[in-house]
Design a protein that fits this description.
The complex is a heterodimer of chains A (about 270) and B (about 525). By secondary structure, chain A is an all-alpha fold. Helices cover about 80% and strands about 0% of the residues of chain A. Chain A folds into two domains: about 160 residues, no CATH class; about 100 residues, no CATH class. Chain A contains nine helices and no strands. In chain A, helix 1 runs antiparallel to helix 2. The longest helix of chain A is centred in the last third of the chain and has 58 residues. Chain A is elongated, with a radius of gyration of 27 Å. Chain B has about 525 residues and is an alpha+beta fold. Chain B has 16 helices and 24 strands. In chain B, the strands form seven sheets. In chain B, strands 11, 12, 13, 14, 15 and 16 form a six-stranded antiparallel beta sheet that branches. In chain B, strands 1-10-3-8 form a four-stranded antiparallel beta sheet. Chain B has a four-stranded antiparallel beta sheet with strand order 2-9-4-7, with helices on one face. Chain B is globular, with a radius of gyration of 25 Å. The chains are: A mainly alpha (about 270), B alpha+beta (about 525). Chains A and B meet through helix 3, helix 4 and helix 9 of A and helix 3, helix 14, strand 18 and helix 16 of B.
Amino acid sequence: MSAIATRYTLLWGAAIVGLAILGVYTYLANLQLERTEFITGYSLFALMIALALFNARKKLAMVPLIRSAYWLAIHVVGGAAAVILFFIHTGSIWPTGGYEQALALVFYLVSVSGIVGYAIQRVNPRRLVQTDLEIIYERIPAELAEIREKAEAEILACTEGTGSDTLARHYMETLSWYFRRPRFILNNVFGGKAVEHWLRLQYRTVNRYLNDNEREYLDRINDLAEMKAKIDVHYACQGMMKGWLLVHLPLAAAVLGLMFWHVIVVNVYAL
Amino acid sequence: MALPEFASIDADSFPKHTPLDGILRNDTRIVRYSPGDIVVREGDYGNSAFLVVSGNLRVVISPALPRNLIGRQLSERKNIFQALAQLWTNRTVPEVRDTSRYGGQSVRDGAQAETDARVFLQDIPAVLDDHQTAQLGPSTLFGELAALGRVARTATIFAEEEAELLEIRWQGLRELRKYDQTWRKTIDDRYRENALKVHLKSSPYFSGLGEEELNEVADATLFESHGSFEWHVSYKRMRDQGKADKEPIIAREGEYPDGLLMIRAGFARVSIKMGNGERTLTYLGAGDSFGYDELWAGHQGRDISLQTSLKAVGYVDLLRVPAPILEKYVFNKIGHQAASPLHHLATRTVSQDAPLEWAVEQRFVNGTKAMLIDLNRCVRCDDCVRACASTHGGNPRFIRHGRTFDHWMVANACMHCADPVCMIGCPTGAVHRSLETGAVVINDDTCIGCGTCANSCPYNNIRLVEISDIAGKMVRDPDSQKPIMKATKCDLCETNPGGPSCVRACPHDALQRVTFQDDETFGATS
């Protein structure tokens, strides 16, 4: 078993044991007519704080705290345990009070965004590797601009070299749209092949009107278009890997805020 | 030519394409040193030998000079509070330096060029009082073993008075050794005397031999070097143009072995013919040997030629121990003990070996702490980059980009090479190996920003940066008003507790610092 698998196995085991102990303890407390929601509530509160500390760890990279990979494992397993603990705490899927419903909604949203984010982080790196290209996200606009300039230079050279404006017209009418900015983003997000289909279609469409000299230019433009297609995949997939955090983190902050107020309110009015 | 060492050379023994006066003109120069100037530093790598023309020098025998005196960095590991304090002490302006610190070490400006700058000892009498030294007078040759063998200098030598030295580049030294009997004898005798026996003793084949036997082995051993010291030049060309130079063949598959080849420095590729190409089975580095199995088979009465080829990857320095010597002292005493790299063929497929082929071709095998990123796991979050920046004053010491193969990327971070090309030619010895960790580090105090290391690094992993003072103002040269530059690179977070922060910061276990020789993906067999 790899070190990563061992780590997750141990953590899942610890989470199951922890939840089982809490469950038994809560059951026994319930038999003695104690307020079990305080036990589960404070456990959930502590767990949520622990989960939030992962972000703080990232800011303290210069300090020899436990490796970030362990923190992520704790965050993933702890997050799943928090969902189960949430159900134990509320005793239902959807609580009754208005404030509690708002809290539950945000909690569900942060949980779902976490699960989606985890899935994205497992799937997208492999999809990026399959493009046979590696590019830093922040450099994508500059790369696209360079490709566009090269494509336009080819068009100009074609017009000057062959005396025909067929390819230039096609570029102005159709291809310039593609080269202008990242395209087929949603399709790329879901791993579709729309761009390949579109590029083949454009190639075939214009190819019949070109002579051999012009076709050489078209082939080079097609190469550039294929390169851009790979960069577009990076734009979509890397964008998604960065973007999901913009959903998850504000929601996590919101759930923490709502949770704090919930604890105060419960302690003031329910005791 | 007036020097006795050259006057006695028979110029006719040199071929027309490499005449003696050509060697002297192209590969030597007169260098003048002032009292206290350090000529060579213990631990440095250099590609020159020196012949004392006039004046006296001192070689420090023991104890070694304190590291700060010879331009090294005195790196102290931060405690946890100092590490945490970086959270608020890091400035918004990157590469801030406390410039008041820079006067602490004695660097003399170069007379003609920045690269002639050198560190000097201010108090020679104190050094002579506190350290055992020996005098080197005119006609003394030193530094030739480090220059030819690509190994670290073993002692520090400084000028005791005004001195004039003839610096001989390794190319010139190699030609002199090749074509002149006297030079060859001097250099070889010296190597036999100073280093060879130690090297043989450390080998499993000869460790059990007595002094006399070892002397006989040493006397019979031949020295060879293959490839070019300046392999980084052709390597950079290969990276830019995608076309590799032919690797010099040291031993060819199918030929009969005449001796055991023991690698002293550099790397060599062990390959076998496959289709119309060559398949790499493994690679050898310092301390490894080649040809043992075939020689053993010959000893057993089986007539076996070399089963594999050996080629220099860049530069290789090796010893050839003749077969009769091996017969006499090894086979009859300790018998067979090596494992053939051919067993590899039975256990691994071509696909499995593709990463190994790539790592050897790209010369990443030189790295001892290369930053290897598994792109199948990397989510491109740049936590590693931010962690690096936060431990290095706000500016990361690497770029999360580099050569890729399948889902592996070797990022542009210093690999802390086994053969550190960057350390050759640093005029002040600012680039050096840390005694504590073995990492290649740069002493910011003595770095003069000449860029020699950055230009030499074959992997483009050293960056020159403009620095700012504590007030955030760019530091400029008072005369030229040009910004002062400093070389920066990954230092494996030497001064930070907990090891490289990039590894610790990666949430997905995607980033590791690896020695390719130990990595199973890249052909490690154990």
